[in-house]
Amino acid sequence: xxxxxxxxxxSIAVANSSQQLAVxxxxxxxxxNEERAAAAEMGRAIAAMxxxxxxxxxxxxxxxxxxxxxxxxxxxxxxxxLTRAKRFLAGCxxxxxxxxxxxxxxxxxxxxxxxxxxxxxxAVRLRKEAEDRALAEAQWxxxxxxxxxxxxxxxAPVVVEAPAPVPVIVPSAVQRxxxxxxxxxxxxxxxxxALIPREYLxxxxxxxxxxxxxxxxxxxxxxxxxxEEAGVSxxx
Length: 236
Known about the structure:
Layout (H helix, E strand, L loop, with lengths): L8 H18 L6 H111 L3 H9 L49 H11 L21
Helix pairs in contact: 1-2, 2-3
C-alpha cells in the first residue's frame, strides 16, 4: 500500500480546524428562529472552511493526480501490446476450439445416424424372427389339429425386445493446456429495437430529470411522479 504524502504544517492546522468545526455543527439543533440563525451562521462558517481546505489541499491533490495520470498512462502504454497480443492468441485458440467442436458434433451426429439405422435394421430383423417363430408355432398347432390355438398364435401381437441403445459421445480432440482456461462467452447484437419486450428496456433518467427540472410540478410523464426536496445552500 502506497504511503500518504507528508502534509505541510498549514494543511494539518486546517484539517484540525475543519474537524472541530464539523463536530460543533453536528451538535446544532434548530427549534426556533434564533437557533435557525445560529445554524445558518455555522453553515456559512463551514462554507468558508471548505474554501480553506480546498486552498490547502488542492495543490497536493493536483500534484498527486498528475503523477497518477502519468503513471497510469505509462502502464497502459506498456500493457497495450501485451493485451493486443493476448487477445490475438485467445482469438486463434478460440477459433481452433470452435472448429474442433464443430467437427466433433458433425462426427457425433454421423455416428448417431448410423446407430439409428443399425437399430432400425436390428428391429426389423428381430421382428421378422418373432414373426417366423409365431408362424412356426402356428404351423405346429395345425399339425397337432388345434386350429384355434394356431389362430390365437397368429392373432397375438408380435413382441420384440430390442436392446437398450448405447449413447454415442465423441470426446473432444482439443488438448487442454495448464494455465489456459477455455471459456465460451455469449454475446448479442440488436437487430430490431422495436421488437424488444418492455421488461428489457431502461428509462432515460437523464432526459426525464431534465424535463422535471424544467416543468417542476407541471410535469406530466406517465409512470413518473415529480416531487421536491427542501434544502438550503451556504455561501461564505
